[in-house]
Structures
1.
Amino acid sequence: MTNTDEILSIKNIYKVFGSHPAEAMQLVEAGFGKKEVFEKTGQVIGVFDATFSVKRGEIFVIMGLSGSGKSTMVRLFNRLIEPTSGKIYLNGREITGLTDKELLDVRRKEMGMVFQSFALMPHMSVLENTAFGLEIAGVNESERQRRAKEALQQVGLSGQEHSYPHQLSGGMQQRVGLARALANDPTILLMDEAFSALDPLIRSEMQGELIKLQAEQKRTIIFISHDIEEAIRIGHRIAIMEGGRVIQIGTPQELISQPANDYVRTFFKGFDSSKILKAGDLARLDPDSTCHVEAPKSFKPGIGFGYLLNDQGQLVSVVDDSSTTHYSQHEQQPVYLDTPLHEVLSIAATLPYPVPVLDRNGSLKGTLSKNQLLQTLGSH
Ligand code: ADP
Ligand code: MG
């Protein structure tokens, strides 16, 4: 482990639930999948050969249908669930090799967890609930109070220190849950469907606050969700799980523009991808369709249009493939790599040739046809 960008790294992790994990693993090694292993042995594979890394300071979302293994995965990270096989590294240190005492220390100091059920103690005040983890960790009273108050302030609950959980709304109770995790100042915050039980408006508000908090603190957050809108809104990268396996990991843009299979595609059905896709996510450059403006070539028949570039690679004009018609670029509205797709659509509609996509220096980075646009936007 030398890559310091990676805070958490897991290698070939399996979790088998049941009393005969070794038998299940033998079948896995013989090439059997989750379903066959269950049929033959009755053992349930919760996580199946997961290998990936989470980067320092990112919000990493784990998405998947119910039963796909998300909760199992996140509990493997702090070994609330012991992996059947495989290795887990935190900051380059192997978690899977720690003694019980070392592990307890890691859980207290490095990993904070927020659950869907707020899991507050009803007879304890907001302040006591927030300081609870610190008390267990042996932090002294005044330090506990200071850190708990600070955490409550971060989640917008200053002034509520002496309330009791039953006096708070669901959203406020979850803020306490979040404050309790933050009070420990964990290296990684694990959130398992933490907002799933909240009303839509409150949920959206909490998402916004989490994004803000993360931007300020640059804390690594691993967030589990089964809701694609939530995943896209808060995730820098998203891992999609199906049947215990991690099927694909990518930015929201990558998952939308290049879904690995139909399962991934299904999540984006009904999602308006033009809201988050940018021209650069779809543009591709065909070298056969470009040439230097002062050394015109005859383009391959059928290529459609040629893009003439200057010494700097900047787009000067577009010609049809017989080079008879020139389209000057001067009066065209330029499309850049970061131009939102819905803006590109209206520009594409006015051009006879695929839209040239430029970087901020005006260099041609790729083109986008009307067909490509419609296919991408229509396929979800
Ligand atoms: P998710 O959080 O994505 O809904 P889980 O991680 O809870 O999924 O579950 C993944 C799979 O593992 C499911 O098939 C579930 O039934 C099974 N599973 C989870 N926990 C246990 C357990 N303690 N014993 C047996 N099977 C379990
Ligand atoms: Mg779950």
2.
Amino acid sequence: MDTLLMKEEQGDIVYEKAGSILRKGGLVAFPTETVYGLGGNALDHTAAEKIYAAKGRPSDNPLIVHICNEEMMEPLVSVIHPKARKLMDVFWPGPLTLIFPKTDKVPYETTGGLDTVAIRFPSHECARKIIASANVPIAAPSANVSGRPSPTIAQHVIEDMNGRIDMIVDGGNVGIGVESTIVDVSGETPMILRPGFVTKQMIEQIVGEVLVDAAVTKKVSETVHPKAPGMKYRHYAPKAPLTIVSGKEKAVANKILDMVKEKQEEKQKVGIICTTETKLFYLKEQKQAYAPIIKVIGSKQDSKAIAHNLYSILREFDNENVSMILSEDVSIGLLKEAIENRLMKAAGHNIIHV
Ligand code: TXA
Ligand code: MG
């Protein structure tokens, strides 16, 4: 299949084309404020099946349905709890996905067989215009091949999806860089299933008590079953194994340097993920043979930058010849939970405390 590539700045012609492809049951990747999505008509079960095939994704992993106004969700959900309404009023449009009991209108192919449906009203103008042009709710998982980091620029989508889908809309770099916060509002007490840019504290301020699914922080096991089926898969995995090193700044750097030396003796190169403040610890290694490849994820003072750069750095390492990646524990600041959840998954929960 030939994939049509268009740029957001080409204007209305892009939205018209994307809308028409989506209405006919085709697939279009487009930017949102969180990550790029891979859209198809949420009410057409064959479109949902095409999405699973393009991503190589298990079909028991439900898709998030994207809307461009609240009226669009009325036929899709059977109950809107008052707490859900409050969250919608405060955080929509924006990076918050809410889970509601579904109606018969939503095919089980879209919800992975569940009786609930995830709804998201993105704030990104391009996403909203494409949904409006399609004039149907749009099922859109992240536009990566299953198991790879979510795409934050169009080039990532091209790498994963070129030839597999009908169209890619290039809207430049996304703003946030990690996927939306998911909150289940189908019961009495809201429960966070996936942390994101909208934090627990922000949600508590609006609705009071909020639960957090155990699978957000713990490794999925026989006793920990995630409520969001997608959280059970080893997501965001870079090609080289990733280890997180956590502890005091200097001790972390020393541990990483020791491990770099070990690998150098085996004539292997290591990748290092560090911060603006800690980069200097590793610079002296740059003169050695098999020097480590150092990538700065952002400043310790700027958790938004760290969240924004995480996936693109993991993807960059896939194109470097490194045998392992060592990351400082960069889950810090306001977006600590969101960063930690993605980093731990990418590392398969492989963490060394020093
Ligand atoms: O920011 C985002 O949410 C991005 C952009 C494209 O909007 N989308 C996204 O979709 O991250 P995806 O498919 O990569 O992740 C959807 C997650 C999965 O973990 C899935 O299991 C969960 O949402 N999910 C979807 N519907 C659900 C439901 N009814 N109940 C529980 N979890 C659900
Ligand atoms: Mg995803």
